[in-house]
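ok trying this again, last paste got cut off
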Amino acid sequence: MANSFDVVVIGSGPAGYVGAIRAAQLGLSTAVVEEWTDEKGGTTLGGTCLNVGCIPSKALLDSSQKFYDAKETLSAHGIGLENLTIDVPAMLERKNKVVGQLTDGIGGLFKHNGVTVIQGRGKVLAGANVEVTAADGTVSVVEAGSVIIAAGSEPVKIPPATVDDEYIVDSTGALEFTEVPGRLGVIGAGVIGLELGSVWARLGSEVVILEALDEFLAMMDTQIAKEAAKIFKKQHLDIRLSSRVTDATVKDGKVHVRYDSPKGEHTEVFDKLIVSVGRRPRTVDLLADDSGVTLDERGFIFVNDQCVTEAPNVYAVGDVVRGLMLAHKGSEEGVMVAERIAGKPAQVNYDCIPSIIYTHPEIAAVGRTEQELKSDGIPYKAGTFPFAASGRALAANDSDGMVKIISHAETDRILGCHIVGPSAADLAQQVLIAMEFGSSTEDLALMVFGHPTLSEAVHEAALAVDGHAIHVANRKSR
């Protein structure tokens, strides 16, 4: 195996493998260093997202939603079912099959594009070289013209709730329950907590989510967050804000959780407890002291807008750098860096990156929130449209939520789109495309949208910005 490449990528998650493939497409000799192995000792590609994150969680979310629909909503369509059961091991087997198909696919893409896989743990040395420690402890050095660090992230651990991988688990363990917990506790009402809590709530668990913050989904538009909270309450997700966990102890096969709230100290008993309080960059033992790469106070690698570190010819992308920890953001950074290494102009538009929570209904956002614009003193106008007024949503018996579009009060340029509702992720992407081209709400208002479609809710929200909505009474949103 060659020990010298134009580009060496550390990590094969969405940021790393996409960057590696693009670099190889551009004619650069490329290697990927990956330490993750399977039970047979082979290299596991795809990182957290494909193996224990985005993909397996969505597989379980879809399976659990189908079960929930069959149990709770199909009767509205005149469909009756009796003796409905859920086979959790079969559900997990399907999830694992989906994961395997996609991770194997990355291996095929690497082979097709001529990307070399090096198994081991990578460390950045001085001079843009990479030290690789194999599983057997063997150490070698790979010379690189450029290094792309894409080491990813890992779950944050908290002292009050030590993960034991049996009763107290992190996001990875929550994907492997072999039976539905009777009572499930979740620490953290963020993206991961809501998604994992939703999976098991749909399958029959009594779910209690404990959130230390006093504001629900603080990163989302406040109006959308409040609407989402109402919907989740109807779904019997017990979300308790201002609830700080102080201790979690396993006794007689149960998890006893103590937490403080404004009303005092409380104790809850659960069959399982999921700790999902966020993720942190995986940068420990990643950089040699003389590598020239620097970290900020939170452990993220310091980079500029083009993902260039302070060390010559070393780049960092994805979860190890500033910004939201999103697979698609990391992938686009990987492409940008590969193209810049090849001498091409490239830049990620960080103002147009969608954020999505895959609950049901989905929550999706792109651009600025109303509270951010208020805080910055930017003049704006906003329009909303409820899915309850959408013929397509009503026909599908899926009409919770709304679309909200915000534009500049003076230029009419679209500044943000926020949605809670059916197919929110795909609908927000439509507005993102418009934003990428600098469109106004008038542009959206003048477009012809198919009928009956969920997309009409986007059209009506754009019309509502200026009080021109047709299928709902127009009101000022501020």
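PB: full thing came through this time. The chain has twelve helices and 22 strands.
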